[in-house]
Amino acid sequence: MQVWVLLLLAAMLGSATTVAGQVPDPHGVYEETCARCHAPHAGDFVWGELKVSDGVLAGNRSGRTVDAYLSSGHGGASPDEAATLLDHFRAVRDSGRMFQEKCRICHGTALSLTRAHLIIADGELVGRYSGRNIGALLKVHGRLSPEEAKQMLDVLTRIADTQGLKR
What we know:
Protein name: Cytochrome c domain-containing protein
Strand order of the largest sheet: 1-2
Keywords: Signal
Largest sheet: 2 strands, antiparallel
Radius of gyration: 17 Å
Signal peptide: 1-20
Number of domains: 2
Shape: globular
């Protein structure tokens, strides 16, 4: 195989970003650019190190906005990756800590659960192997209220979508 083909394959496999025009995987970007210095999981970082100040995400200690950190090149994220991280951090914050409080004890992280067991098929989140509709399952699982079941379905669907878990 020619050297340029090997280099191209290595670059593609080693990158958290996807093909041009697609949004980078936010979990992969976090794992590659942030986790070596911060918490291994973005959710733990967001809830442990960030606060919302005047509607903007900022560092707990410094008060500096996350956007300012990322746009200055902190972590070596590209502009696309920085935008993806900021959107991801906001989504994590907006989703609350319900998964950590009600689900993590049995299911680990929302990311690991989704990667291993869920997929989007025909626009619906379903069990990867069972085909079971997760929206219906959440209505009777984990003692979730109807509002919590909807919120959890949205969180898990967003993760599956950003992971490209579609059939």
